[in-house]
Specification:
- The structure is a homodimer.
- The longest helix of chain A is centred in the N-terminal third of the chain and has 30 residues, at 2-31.
- Helix content of chain A is 78%, strand content 0%.
- Chain A has a domain at 66-209: Tetracycline Repressor, domain 2 (Orthogonal Bundle).
- Chain A is elongated.
- In chain A, helix 1 crosses helix 4, helix 8 (136-153) packs across helix 9 and helix 9 packs antiparallel against helix 10 (188-204).
- Chain A has helices spanning 2-31, 38-45, 49-55, 59-88, 91-102, 107-125, 131-134, 136-153, 163-182, 188-204.
- By secondary structure, the first copy, chain A, is mainly α.
- Chains A and B meet through helix 1, helix 6, helix 9 and helix 10 of A and helix 1, helix 6, helix 9 and helix 10 of B.
Chain lengths: 211, 211
């Protein structure tokens, strides 16, 4: 009986923390990360300041949890497409799923990306030393490199290409497309066209033809 | 005599505005854009609040001037290399100068880029509607497209490539490298290697060989 009492309670706690993180996202997306305080988040979440502090004794702990949650949601957002692509064993589909997974496709995605940029801006002004935040781009580059090497081993991508440099070009291009979407220079369709153009080049081994 | 009285005075005014912008940059780079107030900038510039308000009646006008100054400084930073490259008539050198001109190469460059990201984050949380800020990426894409078309006309880049899409891939990749440098995922040398790798591919018309 001890376990059945305990498990639902722990789930609730985690759910409550996530609700608080969602309130934080709404504030950060609308007013920036500097507007985030325990008090403002409590108000936005419709709960007491005491309850917020029960879960997050300090603002820093709340911000750290919310950042991890953003990364987790980003992973979930991209994850389904990646898992699906991995099942096909088609490296081009896997690379495409990784890259498209970075881009926002709806209003919620845009909001989460805006919050990510807000974290990024704060991190940069502090000297770019937050190890949690630095991990996202290298992680993507490593995943892409693995897929490119695998496609090279199966002779789908020319062996003389530098897998790591190709991954660097794809990952940074997609990071730039993400920011381009947030400032409305590109829409998601245009970004997808650009990604497909580069993947066509990579997999054809010859220069892609103009449409 | 009227002109000689007047001209230096106007120069001083512009110089004073730029000093105020520099004080704003220092605050924004260290604490983010939300820490920028007329009072804080006056203190950082070592001048009176009244004098700041003489030049900038509102915080918004000060922020707008500082943004234009950042763009101007970015243009100056890249400009010398671009003018030099244009003189050679070598499109590859011009493209390279445009792209490397985006990247920070020293501490001051990093500071200005950090401030740019801070502006960007504020812009994004407001919905990405600031026409001044949106202009930077399209401007770069247009300049790159022109150079690629010119190189295609001179048969230095294969004619079947889509100049516009190639420009999109280069500009967004470089925007991603800029943020990668700010979070220390890449240093400037690595970013330069990645840019050269892509330019080699573009100009060779065949796939670049691994080093």
């Amino acid at each position: 009986m001890w376990h059945s009492d305990r498990v639902p309670k722990r789930v609730d706690h985690q759910e409550r923390r996530r609700e608080i993180a969602e309130a934080l996202f709404r504030i950060a997306a609308a007013q920036g990360l500097q507007a985030v305080t325990l008090r403002a988040v409590a108000a936005a979440a419709g709960i007491s300041m005491n309850l917020v502090q029960y879960y997050f004794p300090t603002k820093e702990e709340m911000l750290r949890f919310a950042w991890q949650r953003i990364a987790e949601l980003g992973g979930e957002r991209a994850g389904a497409g990646i898992v699906e692509a991995l099942r096909t064993g088609d490296e081009r589909a896997v690379l495409r799923a990784y890259l498209l997974g970075v881009l926002p496709t709806d209003e919620r995605g845009r909001m989460l990306c805006a919050v990510q940029i807000a974290y990024f801006a704060v991190d940069v002004t502090r000297g770019g030393q937050d190890p949690d935040q630095e991990a996202l781009l290298p992680h993507l580059v490593n995943a892409l490199t693995d897929q490119i090497r695998q496609a090279q081993a199966r002779q789908r991508i020319p062996a003389h290409l530098d897998a790591r440099l190709e991954a660097d070009t794809l990952a940074t291009m997609t990071a730039g497309l993400l920011t381009g979407i947030l400032v409305d220079t590109y829409d998601t369709d245009q970004a997808t066209t650009i990604i497909d153009y580069r993947l066509d080049q990579l997999f054809s081994g010859i220069r892609a033809a103009a449409p």
